[in-house]
């Protein structure tokens, strides 16, 4: 996937602002099973938030980078304990990037 422009990232950040996190990274960190489930969610939603719990072995930045590697998604941002990921749907893309 080609890298997103700053304008596209700003657009996705504004879209993600109102979303609630749908996954949590806990003590076990980023597992392969979690990455698989996040991939399914990205296919359905394209843009998701992941919450990194305080007791996790990794911080939000590390978790975001690991998820980016394991899912092939674009890491849009990390704020506090929240990671925002974007991956266009292969079957039915709904988010139109500027």
From TrEMBL:
Pfam families: CRS1_YhbY. SMART domains: CRS1_YhbY. Residues 2-98 form the CRM domain. Transmembrane segments: none annotated. SUPFAM superfamilies: YhbY-like. Keywords: RNA-binding. One of its GO terms (molecular function) is RNA binding. InterPro entries: RNA-binding_CRM, RNA-binding_domain, RNA-binding_YhbY, YhbY-like_sf. PROSITE patterns: CRM. NCBIfam families: RNA_bind_YhbY (TIGR00253). PANTHER family: RNA-BINDING PROTEIN YHBY. This is RNA-binding protein. It comes from Aureibacillus halotolerans.
